[in-house]
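User: quick one
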Amino acid sequence: MIFFFENNEIHAIAGQTVGSALLENNVRVLRRTRFEGAPRGMFCGIGVCFDCVVTINGVANQRACLVEVEEGMRVEGFQR
Amino acid sequence: MITVVGAGPAGLAAALSAANAGESVELIESGARLGGQYWRNLPNSIVVDQQALNHDFQSGKVLREKVQAHPNITVLLNTQVWRASHEEGISILHTISGGTTREIRTNKLILATGAYDRTLPFPGWDIPGVMTPGGVQALLKGNNVKAGKKIVIAGTGPFLLPVATGLAKYGVDVVGLFEANRLRRWIWQLPALLNNISAIKEGASYLHTLRKFKVRVQRGYAVVEAHSGSDGNLSAVTVARVKSDFSVIEGSQRKVVCDVAAIGWGFTADLSLAGNLGLMQQVSLLDGGTYVVVDEHQGTSQAGIFAAGEITGIGGSKLSLAEGEIAGSAAAGSETNTSKKRKLAKFASALLRTYPVGPNWQSWLKPETTICRCEEVTLEIIEKSVLDLGATDSRTVKLFTRCGMGMCQGRICGRSVNDVVARISGKPASDADRVSSAARPIASPILLGELAQIPIVD
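Assistant: Done. Structure below.
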């Protein structure tokens, strides 16, 4: 299936999490921090650390490591 | 009716033993499938060689199927308990599932909320590519995704071995396994080791596989700094020889090129709900972690609430299963057999004594090193709050600096902040400090719109 990260097409397998599908497509930087603008990506990978939070279909602060991909999903990391 | 929270090894075993004793059981799990972090159960669309990744895959499958097929057990998946309370012998669980909130009242509750990787801050640990071993394992076991092409595994503890082995079997270039503790520490635990031949065999089989894939296991080494390339991603780590207190042996530092470094220092219990329910907790002398205090039958300080698995002390899946079984029987009012648990607990203690975290990991820190990732609080800022503003405990430091106040609510930095503040202030962290750094009124995020749905009852 296909979803979008920052308007780029990303291919994924049903059941994969957004974060894992992005990593598989070599997208490692998921967002920038609000004070320093430092790049962040997946860290704990199991929903504990909230480092991988992205905006999914307009809903902010979703953990990319937990949410499973859906066809046509729109994911944004940097626009905040 | 018995309510179980968490469907990992402890929760599954608890649900099954309570159901077998004739009770009706409600099993609540935040994830989409049963099994927890240890037994990742996959959707049919993802094909992973589970046998290659988990020694114990078959027993997990059997247990899961028994739970699913049991007429007395109702399973609630994708259901988060975001808040819990306890009044007059009744536990109240506030759950949210797919945007719908619900309140569950129960007089018999078993908590099995598990644990996550313990991490230590070090220079560069916030660079994308630095991860936890559990996270790398979850990507592989749960998503069939290799976290990187050249992966360093580091930290301490037996869990590093299966993670490195799984990656190597999947064709990842594991450029090194750096275990901070030395093998000779096992000398003090020989009796426990000899009583657990199956564990020796498991360890030996991992080491055998790693040798086959030419992965070097180097003991007495730690990753003390991470470096980013021009694209902002991890490009290398600095590895150093460390003493038993984790201070660096000068001159031993060298750079190792990698795109992912999976670093873990044992595990931290998820005590959010235990704290909500007011369960008595204490700091373990074995590993310095905070855990729920339980009696022989997994009973907690609150009547009708039981706890099993990693939240009562880190011990691995087999001990979690034994504790879960006891908790389920005890909650159902049946007889329990604790001999298996006692044997496994001895071995778990031996492991914790063999893989301690030396206090001088703090010597790896630089003034500009991030301690709290969420709120971007550096060591320097924490130092100022103690030395200039007069904070003497973690709670005051938190109020001055916001460390531990971000989205993870101190799950990642809480314990390290306790240690850092204790060192700077010269005042050891009290048990109360440590328990309070794991206290979270809201156990998982909830939208205000979802909160607003909940009817107000006078």
